[in-house]
User: What shape does this take?
Amino acid sequence: MPKILLLLLLISSFSYAKKVDAYKEGEILYSSKGCNGCHGMHGEGLNTYPILMNRQKYLLVKKLKFYRGKKGVMNQTAQIMIPFAEHLSDIEISYLSTYLSEFKEALNAPKYDIEYESWGDGGS
Ligand code: HEC
Assistant: This one.
């Protein structure tokens, strides 16, 4: 009898380990796909690039599928998104949108300093 219990415990822990954390996956994808280069480290927006953090998930999904589909009227600004969206799978879009829509403000999370100015001649 204890053996069966042990087996059950083992099986349940395996299925637990396999459960994906959509938020975490999205966070990894967000930087590995280079989204942070334009939208800021956590989607806080950068210059004219739109804010993505804490936006509604369905809207993020809709927009990403729109860019990926390359259908409909797209202005030049929207076309910037095509190369970044066209290779995303449905599940990647879902993870990315989960991460961005549920973004939890990390205390002292690093952000790009848009006020940054370089001084001097760079030593040349
Ligand atoms: C080269 C810069 C650049 C990169 C890299 C980039 N984006 Fe964008 N993104 C833009 C621009 C510009 C827009 C505004 C397009 C428009 O007007 O529709 C945009 C719009 C969006 C929108 C719609 C926002 C809204 O308010 O409608 C989403 C969602 C988005 N990007 C997600 C992503 C994700 C996810 C990635 C990474 C896979 C990514 N972007 C990478 C430039 C970029």
About this structure: The mean pLDDT is 86. Residues 33-35, 37-39, 49-50, 52, 60, 63-64, 77-78, 80-81, 84, 96 surround heme C (CB under 6 Å).
